[in-house]
Amino acid sequence: MGLTPPLHGYASVAHHPSAQRGKNYYNAWYTDLHAAAGESGQPDLPMLRKTGGFTPFVQLAGIPSLDVAFGNNASKGLYFPALGTSYDVFELADKFIDPGYRVHRMCRELLIALLWQWSEAVLLPYDLKELGARLNLEFNELSTRHKDVLDKNSIRFDSLSHAVKLFTANLNHFEGELTRVDLKK
């Protein structure tokens, strides 16, 4: 979330090991997943789930984390029904899912490029407008999805609504300030 520009940039450069010569990962993703899911047209780093292997790092140790996944459209690509079972072993993955681990190598190279860029950056290249939009989207979804329960129990989100609006306004102000600063000094 909020890191779309560098993700899109590197995904556009990363070579995809498809039959089509010169196809990059972004184009492969766009024609496969995007076409099937009706997504926005941009890769997405979703908000972290409340469960997962990264939870202790984020919740207890305060270590920034990403939940990055590479997927494929099962209706167009090969579906491996043994995924997550005792039959999910390297030999079967190499034979049925990703022969020669070509796609795995491409994903690895993409992540290495992103992590290298982010580790060298003075500030992570967050798109603050995207972050604010996501917070507003999540808040609105919370308010509308559970409206009946909230109304029934007289629960109001006035303070939270105010906090989200204030946070969004401060993000916009901060983004304006960043345009005036030379981060290369």
UniProtKB/TrEMBL annotation:
It comes from the Eukaryota. GO terms for molecular function: carboxypeptidase activity. This is Uncharacterized protein. It comes from Rhipicephalus sanguineus.
